[in-house]
Each structure stands twice: as C-alpha cells, then as structure tokens.
C-alpha cells in the first residue's frame, strides 16, 4: 500500500476520528465477526447518533463538495438525511432506476451528500469523490478497507491540483484497524499470510497465497 500511495497511484488520505461510539457498549454476533444489529440500534437511539452524524456531516460539507455516508441501519440513515439539507438516502431496497438516477445526480454534483446502507462498498466508481464518513462501528476489515477505497482513487481537478481523500470516522474504526497506508500482508514461517498493521493482526485467520 505504501508504495502505491507514495508513487501517486492512490490518492493521499486525510483521517479525522471523532469517536462518538463506545465499542464496549455493543454486542458481538454469535460468529464473532461483527456487532449485532440489535445492539447498534439500541445504542444509536441512546446517544441520538443520527443527530451527531448530521452535525459532523455538515461540518465536512462546508469544506468538501461531495460526501458519502455509510450507515448501518435504514431508520438511522433516514433520520440522518432529514437533518442534512439536500441529503439523499440509498439502500438495498431502492428501486434500480431510482438508484441509477440518484448515483448520476451524485456524480454530477447535484447531490452533495448521499447516505447509504448496505450498498456502494464495492463496484461504485466515482474518482472525484472527496470524502467518506463512517457512521458505524465495524469489526469487518473488508468493509473498512472497501469504504476507504471509495476515496482512494486518484483524481486531478481542472486547476491541476490533486485530490486529497477525507476519511471521517465516528465509530472508533481508525483506532481499531489503523491507517490503510501502513497495512501489510505478512507471511509466516508456514507460508501462510495475514494482514498486519503496526504489529497487530487484523485478520481473524491466516490465509494461503
């Protein structure tokens, strides 16, 4: 990763961590892979998370022209969007034609803030996207990497300046996983590989090449 960033193949990233969510208040699912929807819903209601998400989103939008928010619950996303002028919600239930219309308007700059649930982690190509906001806590390295990947695509503006991708985290995810730039795939003595960051194992299991 560091080589790709240093040589301009990936956009420079700027991280902002506002640890609104206390992970100790969440319950892990039976498979141990992520937090339960029930504990997220209960805790978000307790701390009025949609209002806090909207607050930070508005601060970002004062400086960035496009923001993609990743929420975990549809109800929460709807509440968040109502508090942000012009924000639009996109979920897995959004009808295909409407989804295409929303994404087209977002890429054209007609929508500055898009709040999505369960979509746009992969297969969404928008190199000019300036910022992502992670409005959830996750234990999934794949999800974390995919979200940040939305702003890692390099882009050059008309004035010749390079894009700097902003990553705004409200769920203590950056502290948990670390920065993308310092992640490494390490091989052990048995020929198995794992993802490491600053000496910590990020994968639950090692994997073969």
Descriptive overview:
- This protein has about 210 residues and is of the alpha/beta class.
- Helices cover about 30% and strands about 20% of the residues.
- The protein has a 6-stranded parallel β-sheet, sandwiched between helices.
- The longest helix is centred in the N-terminal third of the chain and has 13 residues.
- The chain is globular.
Order of strands, main sheet, comes to 1-6-5-2-4-3
β content, as a range?
A: 15-25%
Helix content: 25-40%
Give me the strand/helix succession.
HEHHEHEHEEHEHEEE
Over all CA atoms, what is the radius of gyration?
17 Å
Instruction: State the separation between the terminal residues, measured CA to CA.
Output: 17 Å
Biggest sheet, in brief? Answer: 6 strands, parallel
Low-pLDDT stretches: 205-209
Mean pLDDT: 87
- Tally the beta strands: 9
Structural shape = globular
Helix/strand/pairing class, anyone? alpha/beta
Number of helices: 7
């Amino acid at each position: 990763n560091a080589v790709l960033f240093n040589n301009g193949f990936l956009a420079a990233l700027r991280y902002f961590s506002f640890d609104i969510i206390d992970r100790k208040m969440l319950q892990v699912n039976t498979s141990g892979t992520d937090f339960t929807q029930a504990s997220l819903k209960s805790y978000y209601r307790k701390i009025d998370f949609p209002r806090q998400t909207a607050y930070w989103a508005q601060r970002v939008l004062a400086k960035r022209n496009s923001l993609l928010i990743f929420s975990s619950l549809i109800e929460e996303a709807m509440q968040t969007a109502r508090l942000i002028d012009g924000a639009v919600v996109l979920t897995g239930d959004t009808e295909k034609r409407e989804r295409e219309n929303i994404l087209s308007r977002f890429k054209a700059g007609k929508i500055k803030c898009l709040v999505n649930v369960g979509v746009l982690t992969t297969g969404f190509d928008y190199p000019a996207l300036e910022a992502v906001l992670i409005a959830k806590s996750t234990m999934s390295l794949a999800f974390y990497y995919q979200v940040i990947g939305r702003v890692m695509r390099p882009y050059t503006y008309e004035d010749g300046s390079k894009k700097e991708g902003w990553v705004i985290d409200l769920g203590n995810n950056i502290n948990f996983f670390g920065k993308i730039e310092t992640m490494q795939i390490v091989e052990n003595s048995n020929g198995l590989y794992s993802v490491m960051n600053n000496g910590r194992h990020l994968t639950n299991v090692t994997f073969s090449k």
